[in-house]
Amino acid sequence: MTSEARAKPTSARNRRDAEGPTEKQREYLEVIYYLAARREPIIAARLAEWMQVQPPTVTVTLQKMVEKGYITRDEKGAILLTAEGHALAEEMVRVHRLLERFLVDVMHVPWHAIHEEAVRLEHALSPLLLARVEELVGNSETCPHGNPIPGKANSYVGHVRLDRALTGGNWQLCRIMEEAEEDNELMRFMQSNDLIPGNVFTVVHSSPSIGVTLQHGEHRTTVTADVASVLWGQIVA
What we know:
By secondary structure, this protein is an alpha+beta fold. 46% of the residues lie in helices and 17% in strands. A 6-stranded antiparallel beta sheet has the order 3-8-4-5-6-7. Strand 6 and strand 7 (219-223) form a beta hairpin. The longest helix is centred in the middle third of the chain and has 23 residues, at 83-105.
C-alpha cells in the first residue's frame, strides 16, 4: 500500500471530525442532555454555572450549536436539543456510562477515579471495542454513580434529596448528580465514607447550617448542605 493510499482514511476521518461537534460542543451537549433528562430548566445562565465560564462564552458556543442544528432556543432563551443533537448527546452519555461501569466492574478501577478515565477512553473507543465493553457490562442499568445508561434504563431512580430527608428515618442513596462526578476529591470523600449508591443510611441530624449527619453501620459522617444537595435517594423502612 502506498503512503498516499494510507493517508486517505485519515483525511476522511479528519473531515468527519471537523463537520461534527467540537470538543467544547460535546461537553455542552452532554450537560444539556443531563438537565433535560432531569427535567430542569435549560438556560444559558445554568450552563455558565455548570461549565464555570462567563455567560458571553456560553452565548457564543450556543449560537454555533444552533447554526450546526444541534439545539434550538425559544423566545425566552430556553434551550432544546434537536433530534440530531439529542441523538448525539444520548450516544455520548451512553458510551461514557458504559465505560464507567466497565472500569469498576471489570477493571476494578477505584470508584472515585472512573469519571476522568472514562473521558479519556471514550474518544478512542472503536465500535468493536464498545460492543465488547457493553457485552462485559451485561445487564447493568446505571453507571456506578447510579445514573441511567441510555438504552438500558429510561429514567432516574431516587427522588428524595438528602437535605430534604426526614431526621430519624432511613434513606437509601440511589444516585449522585452528574456535576459532582467531576470533583475527584468529593468522589474520594464519598467512597471513603460509604456514600455509594445502594447503601442505606439513618439520617441522624439535618440542618442548613451544619449539614446532614448519617449513620451507616458503625460509621457516622456529616456532609455539608452543598454535598447533600447532589445526593438523591429514596425513603426505606
